[in-house]
Amino acid sequence: MKRPWRDPRERANEPPRVPAPAGPPPAGPPPAGPPPAPRARSVAEVVARVRGLLAHEFRDGVVVQGEASNVRRPRGGHLYLTLKDRRAQLRVVVFERDLIGVPAKIEDGMQVVVRGRLDAYPDSGDLQLVASWIEPVGLGEREARLARTRDVLRAEGLFDIARKRPLPRLPRSIGLVTSPTGAAIRDVLSTIDRRFPRVRVIVSPVRVTGEVAAPEIALALRVLDRAAIADVIIVARGGGSREELWAFNEEVVARAIAGCRVPVIAGVGHETDVTVADLVADVRAPTPTAAAELAVPELKAIEGALDDARARLAAALRGRVRDARRRVDAAARSYGFRATGERIRERARRLDEAERRLGHAVEIGLRSRAERIAAAAGKLDSLSPLKVLARGYSLTTSEGQVVRDATELAPGDRIETRLANGVVTSTVESVAADRPAVAAGEGEAA
Amino acid sequence: VSEPKPAKFEDELTRLEEILRRLERGDLTLDDSVAEYERGIAALRACRAALDSAERKIEELVRAQGGEVELRPFQHEAWKPEPKREERR
Predict the structure, then answer these.
(1) Count H helices, E strands: chain A?
(2) Phi and psi dihedrals of A279, rounded to 5?
(3) Distance in Å, alpha carbon of B47 to nearest chain A alpha carbon
(4) What is the pLDDT of residue A331?
(5) Do B60 and A205 touch (CB under 8 A)?
(6) Please, which of A180, A238, A416, A435 could form a disulfide with A205 given CB 3.0 to 4.6 Å?
(7) Rounded mean pLDDT of chain A?
(8) Residue A312 and residue A365: Cα distance in Å, rounded?
(9) Are A310 and B44 within 8 A, CB to CB?
């Protein structure tokens, strides 16, 4: 049999025992009347005694399960709550330092498991459980399942970088799997609206919290993908506790993401929340807003890039033409014009052609953006010599050959000048060549 | 009236970038340079066309009976009415 436990400190405070008075033992039944009043103890003494008993009885600690209620954490310090079931209540305190490893935010109504020691709080005499650990019921089991899911998916290669598909640079249509209410959809839509107001968004509304969330999200992803109406899919959810984001750790969601034929962007919770959905997605965005930013470019940036591309096209061609001119000029000087007249003429003709087109592009560059776009869209592909003539240029021929060099002509030669709306025939009176160059138009191309 | 689908912006932009790469190397013949330039302008035009023809719309995907998929108009305060597009010739 267990010896009744006594705290040695208590004993020290007790008055010395007084031996029973000597004499003959009382005969017969004890006298009637109230038993002698026990010695009165101090409150501190009793509470201390209770604390000692509790410490002894529960020296291995206790693990208690119940519903959390009246959860509060004044000034973000220690966490206080009342653990209850249908028949009883127990006060619980979790000191701040012990909250660090707690895996979820404890909220009213949650079923929790608490581990700790029992104590009586001397200032109030209340019984309380000083917890060293608290977690929602089933969390351990769920975390274990999460670890298994991760292992399985990783082994299947679903997290591999090589699997990640690039995002379209300009999607025509974006699928959005999220809650139709709340911050996430607002953030995504307003971000798309601000950056790229010319896109189609197809919302597939789902619940994102609770038991129903994972199957709903998975189904929405599959339906959206099968309908083949989106170039990219965003799956998003605003910030929340680990518990609230749990659906995005479920295997069914991960597999639905992996099964999509178009790239999927996951934007779940905040920066620090990394769910299985994030790992499987083609791109992981830290927040729903970031997901939207990844999904669409800025319209201004795209337009700027196209303007830039146009300028580079023109510059590259201009450079090539200048280069050709230098070589033709050099050829004209080295070999003597007459000897290689035909070749030079042929080269010069091609050069003129290039310059004419280039001239058009350069001219376009001077106009306003809207006009440039219109020009690029409507005119650039319909270049014709007549349009060049319409701008005031003319084409001079002599005996059916295009005249590019004044020295080819002599006084008395008949020349034909082609204008936009007709031909003028003239006779050359005099010739004044600047240099034996090839053709006019250098100033225009430069 | 069903308009022909604009060439994918993606493909045209890639084409444009390849043309720029070739053209900027400067080792093409003059004729090829001019041809590349014109192809570049065509790709650029296709990009702009894809941009201009992109539609702005927000819809909700609903599953009708029998597993059919339907699209319905969707409203959200964060999605403002279509801004006036710049008038383009």
Answers:
(1) 13, 14
(2) -70, -35
(3) 8
(4) 59
(5) yes
(6) A180
(7) 79
(8) 11
(9) yes
Work out the minimum CA distance from A403 to partner chain B, whole angstroms. Answer: 21
Q: Are strands A264-268 and A283-285 parallel, antiparallel or unpaired?
A: parallel
β-strand partners of B61: B71
DSSP lists the bridge partners of residue A235 as A177, A266
Model confidence at A408, in pLDDT bands (50, 70, 90)? confident
Work out the minimum CA distance from A221 to partner chain B, whole angstroms.
11
| The token pair that represents A12 in the structure block | 């020290």
A-chain residues near B41 (CB < 8 A): 310, 313, 361, 376, 380-381
Q: Which residues partner with A136 through β-bridges?
A: A112
Two tokens, residue A229: 């109406």
Taking contacts as CB-CB distances below 8 angstroms, the residues of chain A near B65 are: none
Which two structure tokens, joined as six digits, stand for A161? 């970088």
- Among A69-73, A241-245, A364-368, A417-421, the minimum mean pLDDT is found in A364-368
State the smallest CA–CA distance between residue B84 and chain A in angstroms. Answer: 11
**To 5 degrees, how large is the angle CA A409–CA A410–CA A416?**
50
Chain A residue with the nearest C-alpha to that of B67: A223
Of B24, B57, B83, which is closest to A316 when you measure between CB atoms?
A: B24
Among the partner-chain residues A199, A323, A380, the one whose CB lies closest to the CB of B45 is A380
**pLDDT digit string, tens, across residues A336-366:** 545 455 666 676 677 677 666 665 554 444 3
What are the respective helix, strand and coil percentages of chain A, to the nearest 5? 40, 20, 40
Residue of A nearest to B34 (CA): A354
Q: Which residues of B touch A200 (CB under 8 A)?
A: 54-59
Contact A185, A244 (CB under 8 A): no
Pick among A191, A202, A223, A262 to test the B interface (most B CBs inside 10 A)? A202
End-to-end CA distance of chain A: 110
Nearest CA among A23, A98, A28, A113 for reference residue A68: A113
**pLDDT, tens only, B39-86:** 999 999 988 888 888 788 899 998 766 677 888 888 888 887 665 555
pLDDT in tens, A69-96: 899 998 878 999 999 998 999 999 999 8
Q: What is the CA radius of gyration of chain B?
A: 20
